[in-house]
Amino acid sequence: MKVSILLVSYNNARFIKKVVDSILIQSFTDFELLVLDNGSTDDSLELLNRYSDKRIKIYSESKNLGPEGCWNYLFKKSKGKYIRISCSDDLMHASCIEKQVSILDNSSDIDFVFTNIQIIDGNYKKLQEIESKLEEIYPTAFGKNYERILWLN
After folding, report:
1. Whole-prediction pTM value?
2. Which pLDDT score is estimated for 50?
3. What pLDDT score does 138 carry?
4. Whole-angstrom Cα distance, residue 126 to residue 13?
5. What burial letters (b/e) apply to 70-84, b meaning 16+ CB within 10 Å?
6. In terms of Cα–Cα distance, which of 56, 54, 43, 53 is closest to 16?
7. Which residues of the chain have pLDDT under 50?
8. For residue 141, what pLDDT is reported?
9. Closest by CA position to 34, among listed 5, 54, 60
10. Which of 84, 83, 86, 77 lies closest to 58 in space, CA to CA?
């Protein structure tokens, strides 16, 4: 297994199908998708359970573990050489994982990669493309490290 994609969902029934579909159509296919439903009270878990793709492993917690608890839970279950953290309202371009794996495989001095982002609204309409100026998007009150963490997600 080359890549473990960790996906946490909490009450995201509105977006979860498009998010999972954007992962399943990746040009790079040597991955597992580990999904944790974090105590959702909407139809998120029901929608997730409709998938039959063998690469998907779905877990459910009745008690909300919080963000760090969720990532740690999934990280312990992951088997991939590389870990990709994804949020349940983030869509991926079809070649995203392929490009990231290529960079990691061919650059021994690089430990992690992340992508540019496009901000879309609830109807998937592109609002803004962001390439490198995080300080303009996130308040600097949180500091540079916090901004970098948000960027990775």
Report:
1. 0.81
2. 98
3. 47
4. 20
5. bbebbeeebebebeb
6. 43
7. 132, 134, 137-153
8. 40
9. 5
10. 77
Rounded Cα distance, 120 and 107, in Å: 32
Q: Is 34 helix (H, G, I), strand (E, B) or coil?
A: strand
Res 108: pLDDT:
85
How many other β-carbons are positioned within 10 Å of the β-carbon of residue 1?
Answer: 12
Contact between 31 and 98 (Cβ < 8 Å): no
How long a stretch of residues is the chain? 153
Number of H helices, E strands in the chain: 6, 6
Instruction: Name every residue whose Cβ is closer than 8 Å to that of residue 92 and which is 6 or more positions away in sequence.
Output: 22, 23, 26, 86
Residue found by looking up tokens 């990775």 in the block: 152
